[in-house]
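Researcher: Structure for this, please.
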Amino acid sequence: MCENEFKKISLKKFLSTFIDEDKSETRFCFILGAGASKQSGIPTGGELAKKWMEEIEESCDNEELEIINKWKIEKNITKETLAEHYTEIYDKRFEVDPKLGYTELERLMEDKEPSCGYSFLSQVLTKTKHNVVITTNFDSLTEDALFIYTQMKPIVCGHESLANFATPLWKRPLIIKVHRDVFFAPKSSPEQTKAIDGGWTEKLKNIFQNFIPIVIGYGGNDGSLIGLLDKIDKIPGIYWCYRKDNEPNGKIKKLVSTLNGWFIPIDGFDEMMIQLNNVLGFGLLDEKVKEVSNKRIENYRKQIEDINKRAKNEETEDALKSIVLKTKRNWWHIQMEVDAVNDKNEKQRIYEKGLKEFPDSYELRGEYAIFLHQEQKDYDSAEQQYKKVLEHEPDNITILGAYAILLYNIRNKNDEAEKLIIKAMNIK
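Model: Predicted structure, token format:
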């Protein structure tokens, strides 16, 4: 096959094939390179190579710059081939103190959040049998997405010493970082990335012989993973995704041709994952994230409130008050003040004062309604407050349940109470 010729199919056709294969015993795995992290704000290898080369040249005096230019000629490094020489450029940039390279990589990934594409990938990894990710990246975007969007804890093998644990399971996602995790002295030099560490070889061979790889954002410039793929017999196929504006190089074309695979032009990682989730019938996760987050906040506050109520140690009480004062004042400060006193009338005074300070806090209004209902037995006022909360938060399960109890036990309005209970039970 001529280098400029290669077999490709549209993303639409690939997705149709994916669904067909999903109904069979076939399992896919995902190979992710730096391109998959770009939309999360992490620079690609090519972008970093360009940045570091500029820094190398800017830091040299005339004599050193002459040496660098000779080195570039020797390595055939040009503006067009910077990405291919990422490892050599990294090595040169941090040759004085390699630890600074680790620090730089940590800084680049420190505050990055998974893009929406990773949220969709997390659904594939937890809801289907295609639950293995193999990556040359150092970042934690895949596992972060699983923690954020699914609450499923994956097996993460971020170092070759963990290779024995890299066994695919049906119920739990597996993430393999062939160049290590960013916190485990990641491999970036030519010597480190020219071949796969021996600890990974057999494990990866077994995976690739039983899973069809879907490659996304990987340029094959490290030599290690692509070299292993080239040596493994009986790989059942391969799908290599590439950005429409960045055609794969000759080395990749040869490998995919040898494996009788297909190329798939895509707009980007996020766009591909959105379309994959669509054909799998998965929806958005925003409400799920909100629900989990609210539950965490509720549990967190309840734990603090419980400690506040039962604290008998003066030092604990003082420490808790100090912590609360350091936090920006909100409705919860009022609730903490209420919980700190025993007198019911004083509690009511604090609630009423608090609602003047935070009139739009329906969390505080809801707590006040329950207080009026259960402690003060002021059912008319409690009902008014319940109604005000439900006008603004009609799906507030706690208030629906509390108001239903008032209607049933106090008002004898059983039908209305039943409607509220049914509504609360149907809220997901």
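Researcher: Any notable elements?
Model: The beta strands are 28-32, 132-135, 155-157, 174-177, 212-216, 239-243, 262-266. Residues 11-42+112-284 form a domain with the Rossmann fold fold (CATH 3.40.50.1220).
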